[in-house]
Design brief:
It contains 6 helices and 3 strands, in the order βααβααβαα. It has 141 residues and is mainly alpha-helical. The chain starts with 12 loop residues before the first strand and ends with a helix.
Length: 141
């Protein structure tokens, strides 16, 4: 179930990523298959759907299906309640990837308490790097 997970946590957390057209297809033509996937997702500690579009794209019928926007919106609301399903509309593919990464890393941090090690600060910075750093700071202010 889902497209993305974390190694060793595949039975606990998963994220399904959908383009807008794919989501609407899952709400009408492939509804039974999609609902079976959502049912499987209920057995995970966390399962979410990430949409590579804005909610307004759905509401304004910016997809190829004949399904009405009202029906699509009501289906998403029903699924979110029925399956305890967070649905994130992320605007585009790039931001959807960022949100997926954030969800999965936060899951590991929140559930396991794991915090990735931080690199120690450099002990010595050559003068050229120090000068470049000062120049870039001056340009920002």
């Amino acid at each position: 179930t889902g497209d993305y997970s974390v190694r060793c946590y595949e039975n606990a957390v998963s994220v399904e990523r959908k383009s807008l057209d794919d989501l609407v297809q899952c709400l009408c033509v492939d509804r039974d298959r999609f609902e079976r996937e959502l049912e499987r997702g209920m057995f995970l500690e966390y399962f979410a759907v990430i949409v590579e579009a804005d909610f307004s794209d759905l509401a304004e019928h910016h997809y190829r299906s004949a399904m009405s926007p009202e029906s699509a919106v009501q289906s998403i609301i029903a699924f979110s309640v029925r399956y305890r399903l967070p649905v994130f509309f992320c605007g585009n593919r790039h931001y959807a990837a960022h949100v997926i990464q954030s969800i999965l890393s936060k899951y590991v941090r929140e559930v396991t308490g794991y915090k990735p090690p931080q690199a120690p600060p450099p002990k010595y910075a050559p003068p050229a790097q120090v000068q470049a750093s000062r120049t870039s700071c001056a340009l920002r202010t």
